[in-house]
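Hey, I was hoping to borrow your eyes for a little while. No rush at all, and the record is pasted right below.
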Amino acid sequence: MDYHMNTRELLEIPEDAFVVGMVGRLAEQKAPDVFVKAAKRIKEIIPKAFFLIVGDGPDWDEVKQEVDDNELTDSFILAGWTRRPMEYIKILDIAVLISRWEGFGLVLPEYMLANKPIVATDVDAIPFIVQDHVNGLLAPVDDDEKIAENVVEIYRDAELRDKLVEEGRREVDERFNVERVAKDTEDLMNSLAMLKYRKY
């Protein structure tokens, strides 16, 4: 891909499209099938909605078939794997992580860093990063109806959208920046050193 060109232009996404997307493997854990179901609901309410999945995986054929079966082919792109996911994240209007289970959700800080409002599932470690109606909107696992409702809510409420982005950026700046991680590591090492010193 020629990154000197605009990624949106390269993907031939309409200028006025409202882009909802996710970065993740096309596999059961990341629930791409649920994303397609939610996309169908969203499209019925937001005709200019456009959908993007960035990632590869064993469920590619099944997801492609579901996109076709739901008549979303003209407004849905399966972009495949990329070394530069941020180039795709930048063109999203809403970023999604709707995993069925999730250890940490490394993509969430990337979404926040890119100033994207987030819709995610309320499972495992995700709610420790995304707080509902604070820096994102949460939905139950496999609940495509609630996921769609959350997307529509953000679409319709610019004030909420701005708040989620602002709080998300604050979250990533406070918890995930390099200086903070370095300081936490230094504090930990100092604590361990003091503990060792006290033993002698």
Q: What stands out?
A: Residues 95 and 118 are 5 Å apart (CA to CA). The mean pLDDT is 90. The longest strand covers residues 18-23. The chain has one domain: 7-175.
